[in-house]
Design brief:
Blueprint: E1 2-8, E2 15-17, E3 20-27, E4 35-41, E5 49-50, E6 61-62, E7 66-72, E8 76-83, E9 92-96
Antiparallel strand pairs: 1-9, 2-8, 3-7, 3-9, 4-5, 4-6, 4-8
Length: 97
C-alpha cells in the first residue's frame, strides 16, 4: 500500500509504481468541492498523464469516496492530484494497493 495523500488538501508527491494492477482509493469526511485524480509520469514529471480506469479507460477522478482499478507498466511514478479544493481546505486521503 502507498499513501498518496494523508489528510491533505494539495497534490501529493510522486511515488514509484512497481507495475501491474492496482486499486486507487480516495476518501474523506468532506471533499469540500475537491476532486482527487490519479496521474502518472514516465519521465520524472516532465510528461504528466491521467491514469485511466482499467474497465473503460476514463480518467480516474473522485469527488466523493470511491475507488478505481488500473494497470500500469513498471518504471513509472504516480501521484494524487487535488483540484478545485474549496474552503475550508479538505483533509483528503488517497491510497493505492
Amino acid at each position: 500500500m502507498n499513501n498518496l495523500l494523508n489528510n491533505a488538501g494539495v497534490t501529493g508527491e510522486w511515488v514509484e509504481w512497481p507495475g501491474g494492477y492496482g486499486t486507487f482509493v480516495a476518501f474523506s469526511a468532506n471533499f469540500e468541492g475537491a476532486t482527487v485524480s490519479l496521474q502518472m509520469t514516465p519521465d520524472d514529471g516532465t510528461t504528466i498523464v491521467a491514469v485511466g480506469d482499467d474497465f473503460d479507460q476514463t480518467a480516474i477522478a473522485h469527488s466523493a469516496n470511491g475507488y478505481s482499478n488500473f494497470k500500469l507498466g513498471p518504471g513509472v511514478k504516480i501521484r494524487a492530484l487535488v483540484a478545485s479544493a474549496g474552503s475550508p481546505t479538505p483533509s483528503l486521503n488517497a491510497r493505492v494497493f
